[in-house]
From TrEMBL:
Interacts with SLC19A2. Interacts with NTRK1/TRKA. Keywords: Glycoprotein, Lysosome, Membrane, Transmembrane, Transmembrane helix. It comes from Ptilorrhoa leucosticta. It comes from the Eukaryota. The keyword Membrane applies. It is a multi-pass membrane protein. This is Tetraspanin. Gene3D superfamilies: Tetraspanin. Structural component of specialized membrane microdomains known as tetraspanin-enriched microdomains (TERMs), which act as platforms for receptor clustering and signaling. Participates thereby in diverse biological functions such as cell signal transduction, adhesion, migration and protein trafficking. Regulates neuronal differentiation in response to NGF by facilitating NGF-mediated activation of NTRK1/TRKA receptor tyrosine kinase and subsequent downstream signaling pathways. Plays a role in the inhibition of TNFalpha-induced apoptosis. CDD domains: uroplakin_I_like_LEL. GO terms for cellular component: lysosomal membrane; plasma membrane. Belongs to the tetraspanin (TM4SF) family. Pfam families: Tetraspanin.
Length: 243
């Protein structure tokens, strides 16, 4: 290619890099804002987006998840956008490194999810079950999220009704949440064992397996975008040496 064509190609890719990362930056800011909103006023958020209550995101603390993802996207978007605009080799290399680390972490998480599903369940149980015992019936937002999730997904606790043994809710009410007995109250241990309502983790895992093709396609698309972003940033980085 002639020097002019090379320069035109460089400029085009630079502009695309800026626009792409500007979109990432704005998306990150939006997620961060929503995360803060959920943290401050979770009940209003659930009233508006109640149809999403069966999502896997309801099992964990949605606000912190959105805040973390939003912050990461803000950093990536800023490094990519500002680095391309200022033609800064340092920022472009930082952008490449951050995206590469995220890509490696995603691949590792995918391998763990595929190979060590049982281990993932054990770890999640170790994290979420204590929260159910301590916060369910105490924290209004946490309790509401789990009530909506258990009602919509037709599940009880993370594994089953025994997650509420020795919990604040059981010690206070002397019974399990009504969802553990198919909405029959009072929900005692005998009725809960008889109904044997499955835990939310198993239900959500089944839903994920059912939609594994869609999830895999989305994951592959995200991976392809990350590889493309790394390739473009490295192209700009190398072309700056020639300039």
């Amino acid at each position: 290619l002639s020097p002019g064509a090379k320069m035109g190609c460089f400029t085009f890719i630079k502009v695309m890099m800026i626009l792409f990362n500007l979109a990432i930056f704005l998306s990150g800011g939006t997620l961060l804002g929503v995360g803060i909103w959920v943290k401050v006023d979770g009940e209003s958020f659930l009233k508006i987006f109640g149809t999403l209550s069966s999502s896997v995101l309801q099992v964990v603390n949605v606000s912190y998840l959105l805040i973390v993802i939003g912050a990461i996207l803000l950093v990536i978007g800023f490094l990519g956008c500002y680095g391309a605009q200022k033609e800064s080799k340092c920022l472009l290399m930082m952008f490449f490194s951050v995206v590469l680390i995220i890509f490696i972490a995603e691949v590792a998480a995918a391998v763990v999810a595929l190979v060590f599903t049982g281990l993932a369940e054990t770890l999640l149980t170790g994290l979420v079950t204590p929260l159910l015992k301590e916060k369910y019936g105490v924290n209004d937002t946490f309790t509401h999220i789990w009530n909506v999730t258990m009602t919509e997904v037709h599940c009880c606790g993370l594994n089953n009704y025994t997650d509420f043994n020795n919990s604040y809710f059981y010690d206070t009410h002397g019974s399990y949440p009504r969802q553990c007995c198919d909405m029959i109250e009072p929900c005692n241990s005998t009725l809960a064992a008889e109904r044997d309502v499955e835990g939310c983790f198993k239900q959500i895992l089944e839903e994920i397996k059912t939609n594994a093709g869609v999830a895999g396609g989305v994951a592959a698309g995200i991976g392809a975008l990350e590889i493309a972003a790394m390739a473009v940033s490295m192209y700009l980085y190398c072309r700056l040496d020639e300039k």
